[in-house]
Amino acid sequence: MSTAIVNIGELVTNDPALGGLGIVDDAALVIEDGSVAWTGPSSKAPAADTAFDAAGRAVLPGFVDSHAHLVFAGERAEEFAARMSGRKYAAGGIRTTVERTRAASDDDLRANVRRLIDEMARQGTTTVECKSGYGLTVDQEERAVRIAAELADEVTYLGAHIVPAEYGNDTAAYTHLASTDMLAACAPHARWVDVFCERGAFDADQAREVLRAGVEAGLSPRLHANQLTQGPAVRLAVELDAASADHCTFLSDADVDALASSETVATLLPGVEFSTRQPYPDARRLLDAGATVALATDCNPGSCYSSSMAFCIAVAVRDMHMTPAEAVWSATAGGAQALRRTDVGHLTPGARADIHVLDAPSHIHLAYRPGVPQTAAVWKAGRQV
């Protein structure tokens, strides 16, 4: 069964052969067997079994959200209100979510993940990475990655999120657990291993211990890096050939140079800075140095309870000095690179047919009309959702 999307006003392909966003005007696209089978001028579209008239709208690859924490219970609205009243953000609030998540049933957690992924899909997000990290015992972390694997496209083991209260200040003992029994229980359900390498969480040596153990268990590394302070995390990510260093808010010149000379993607999470009143990452500095940049939501109940990639694009353009084209690329192809995926983030023949039809004539409207719903239709793997 084939479907042609015709009368596309602006088709964003992210085809590197075309440069930039690989835009094709007055275009069409054919879906067959869940993949993109053809793109080109609308007047030359081959016959298909069914057709969807885009009526001059823009068509983009589905957003690739490469950083989200969706397996949780409860919310932290009061904490957000306190921050907006002047209290500084600190990672310790995670423990509130840990308590509520441990008390929740499997069905409650599963329903929350499904709700958020559906919410993302309605806004054009078709690939979602989901982390554990709110259980922090062997059984709870295994439960989190198992539930995530049922619903999300990519699953990350984040047992080393913070040290749970029952360990007091014994970070070494908890690091050992996260590198051994907890990792062994979680690895069968995950593709990635992550660590929150930051003041108040895990230092570079502890992060290296967990990440190297994860690699030995068959997982690939990624890292929460330099969110709250300058530190060693970005260079550790590059040292270990991590797919991404996420946050990258406080960077030295050496950090920027390391990212620019590596395959590690700098994943920026502007919703976090919006929600915590922290300084925004300097996307312009990274791009001008030649680093690859991705945008993601970091959807979580504490530091950024937003699932909107469009919102992240608007903030990145307004406050991080990205162009609309750079921000859209980073939210699609950039996210795919942060997950080391070649099948998503672009609309060229052979790609998975993850398609986002905007209710707008151009990708620029995502930043030009912030806060306005602009999703007209979405396909994931060739199925309209």
Largest sheet: 9 strands, parallel
Which consecutive residue ranges, at least 5 long each, have pLDDT under 50?
none
Number of structurally distinct domains: 2
Measured between the Cα atoms of the first and last residue, the distance is 16 Å
Task: Provide the CATH topology of the largest domain.
Answer: TIM Barrel
**Assigned CATH architecture of the largest domain:** Alpha-Beta Barrel
Quick recap:
35% of the residues lie in helices and 23% in strands. By secondary structure, it is of the alpha/beta class.
Characteristics:
9-stranded parallel β-sheet; 2 domains; single chain; TIM Barrel; alpha/beta; 14 helices; 385 residues; Urease, subunit C, domain 1; globular
Account of the protein in words:
This protein is an alpha/beta fold and about 375 residues long. It folds into 2 domains: about 1-60 and about 345-385, Urease, subunit C, domain 1; about 65-340, TIM Barrel (Alpha-Beta Barrel). Helix content is about 35%, strand content about 25%. Helix 3 (about 105-120) packs parallel to helix 4 (about 140-150). The longest helix has 16 residues, at about 105-120. It is globular. The two termini are about 15 Å apart.
Question: Which secondary structure elements does this structure contain, and how are they paired or packed?
Answer:
Layout: E1 2-12, E2 23-32, E3 35-41, E4 50-53, E5 58-61, E6 63-65, H1 77-84, H2 94-103, H3 106-121, E7 125-131, H4 138-151, E8 154-160, H5 171-179, H6 181-186, E9 192-197, H7 204-216, E10 220-221, E11 223-225, H8 233-239, E12 244-247, H9 253-260, E13 265-268, H10 270-276, H11 283-289, E14 293-295, H12 309-319, H13 324-338, E15 355-358, H14 365-368, E16 375-380, E17 383-384
Parallel strand pairs: 1-4, 1-5, 6-7, 7-8, 8-9, 9-10, 9-11, 11-12, 12-13, 13-14
Antiparallel strand pairs: 1-2, 2-3, 5-15, 15-16, 16-17
Helix pairs in contact: 3-4, 5-7, 12-13
